[in-house]
Amino acid sequence: MSVLTPSRPTAENAFGTGAAATHRPARGGRRGGLLLAAPFALLLTATVLIPVGYAIYLSLFTDRLTGLGFSGPEQVFVWLDNYGNVLTDGAFLDGVGHVALFSLIHIPLMLGGALVLALLLDSAVARLRGLWTLAVFLPYAVPGVIAGLIWAYLYSPTIGPLTDLLPFDPLGSDGALASIANMATWQWCGYNMIIFLTALRSVPREILEAARVDGAGPVRTALRIKVPVIRPTLFVALIFTVIGSLQLFTEPLVLHNFTGSVTTNWSPSLYVYDSAFINNEYGRAAAASIILALVSALLSALVMRLSTRRSAR
After folding, report:
1. CA angle 95, 96, 99 (to 5 degrees)
2. Span 240-244, mean pLDDT?
3. Cα(first)–Cα(last) distance of the chain, in Å?
4. CB neighbours of residue 189 within 10 Å
């Protein structure tokens, strides 16, 4: 009588089967990841890469009249001449200076005010939180052009009430910068306050209770516990605020119609708009936009580097 014993799989078959089993899910997972990333890649290509590439292409050309000019302007390859013309143009450099001063005023006031308001609304002594949150956030819901018109009429020396209250002319050459910074701060303070308030709601309440038991007051708790916990959110808001400040456009465009102190080249974005759609110098406008994008990327990378160093400490 013979007994049939089941044959044991050899080591080669066992490992081979296992390797095949492990490789199949890996390939399938890779394909699934590519399929999931495909919509984002297509959207990024269509909305970012292609427009940026076309702007770089335009920045290398300019329109010039040839001969007697009866045939119209022709597109001429000028290599990097447009970039040199922009970087040596006094109007563009003045716009960069205006935006730099605007950022020095706007960024600390707006982010600092938004943080203080968020800490006050998150504190236990705040009353009617929902009403105050809505009231502070409401200016962000107003379209930028409408908000600019509202402030322009408030700044008006004939019908506006602010001229008699302020020690300077808000539409004059000395007050235009402060007026634009005030308009931008008024509109964006509530938006960033909502971001900070949402981050503060995620702070563990156990830590706050422990600080309260140890005798820490509201101010010390806010400065030593809440602010360090939401520091990554603060740096993200700082990055977006820096990028938005460099792209300043709506406020000076609206005030330009009310005062001669704000020129058509008051900011780099207005310089691009004026070059492209007023003077039809598309190569110069494309070069200025590329320079502005590079400066924004460099400043964002610098802020990210500082954020990483502070977080590592």
Report:
1. 85
2. 92
3. 78
4. 22
